[in-house]
Amino acid sequence: MNDIDLLDEDYPRMDSDDTLSKAFPILSERDLIFIENGKELAGVVFEKDLLRTKNSPGTKMKRLIVHPPVLEDEWRIGDAARLMVENEINMIPIVDKKKVRGVVDGNRILKRAVQGEFGKEPVSKFMSSPIENIGPEESISKAESMLKEKRISRLPVTDENGLVGIITVKDLIRNIYHPEHRPRGAESGGDVDKYGEYIGEKKDYLKMPVKGLMTELPTTMPPDTPVKEVVENMLERNLRGMLIGTGKDLQGIVTKRDLLKPIAEYLRPGNFRIQFAGELERLKDFEKEEAIQEILEHLGMHEYYLKLSDVHVFLKGHTETMRGERKIYCEVRLTSPRGRYVATDEGWGYKHALRNTLEAIEKQVRRGKRDHR
């Protein structure tokens, strides 16, 4: 199915021999850049790639590219949404013989989706909570590390009274990494001495407290706000995520990826064959449909990568209990064309045990995806 309304032909692009200094102003506004050799797609560079400390402004884009997922001429909205969620990307290129004909825009998918019943749902249903945060006196270096390690784009700043600000990847790009803010950086090129000065200056900036770079009193929206209003606000302000709460009372955060998940799930064809085994009849609170939903929440976003997969879940109870909950052993085996993944863990109650084990499986799948790229 082709849907011209969701395609964007005016996407951000650069040549593979262009330098990183040219990318800064683009990535300070966009999440990624498509890199081309002539008219052929070579790969993409994400804004988060600019947080690599060893890259000088003279670095060529072809050294930073990763290979994005692509769609062929015949594609479905569900396929596009799943690839976006799975690969943490908001644009999927439509490729014909290595040439990009356009990109499917996640913003356009969300804009259309919220016109229906989905748009009337309270945003609290899709927000993440609790969320990572940082104190205003912590260093920008720590904020940078958290953004990289947690693979997030924005970090609320809180003190003993609640929310006081927010710091984002774009804040770092605009104020720390952008050559216009690095007097010698843009001219350094291959000059080792000047490159050393660039790195030294950046380290000095990273020692500053977060409060010197954060946006104070960021926009928040109440948890009962309809999804449609949140999406419209995010698109109008070019935000990747929205803080959910009232005043300084921060309750959660919702990102475009969070809102694409239910769209991807709703349109998911179903590629998992799930089997349960073990002492199921002795687990007092075991519910098969509930367990299946837990599995899909962890693995559903990776379905396009994994393809048709078999998931085998083994559950067994121990005699040990705590506060009425029985300790449960769980083993999950996932077999797909991409490989075989196995993990075991324990927890108090089957849900806790299953969730712990699925998190371990998902980490293995993510590693496999990175290696596959």
Strand line-up of the largest beta sheet: 13-14-15-16
Q: How much is the average pLDDT?
A: 83
- The amount of helix comes to 25-40%
Helix and strand succession? EEHEEHEEHHEEHHHEEHEEHEHHEEEH
Give the strand content: 25-35%
Biggest sheet character: 4 strands, mixed
Termini Cα gap: 26 Å
Rounded to the nearest angstrom, the radius of gyration is: 23 Å
How many beta-strand segments? 16
Category by helix and strand content: alpha+beta
Uncertain segments: 181-200
Please count the helical segments: 12
The global form is: globular
Write the layout of secondary structure elements.
Blueprint (H helix, E strand, L loop, with lengths): L6 E2 L4 E3 L4 H8 L4 E6 L2 E7 L30 H11 L3 E6 L2 E7 H8 L26 H10 L4 E6 L2 E7 H9 L7 H4 L3 H15 L8 E2 L3 E2 L5 H11 L3 E6 L2 E7 H11 L5 E7 L9 H12 L3 H4 L2 E14 L2 E12 L2 E10 L1 H23 L1
Parallel strand pairs: 2-3, 10-11, 13-14
Antiparallel strand pairs: 1-6, 3-4, 5-6, 7-8, 8-9, 11-12, 14-15, 15-16
Summarize the structure.
The protein is 34% helix and 28% strand. By secondary structure, it is an alpha+beta fold.
Descriptive report:
- With 373 residues, this protein is α+β, with helices and mostly antiparallel strands.
- It has 12 helices and 16 strands.
- The strands form 5 sheets. It has a 4-stranded mixed sheet, with helices on one face.
- A hairpin with a 2-residue loop joins strand 7 and strand 8.
- Helix 2 packs across helix 9, helix 3 crosses helix 9 and helix 10 packs parallel to helix 12.
- 32% of the residues are buried.
- About 5% of the residues have low confidence.
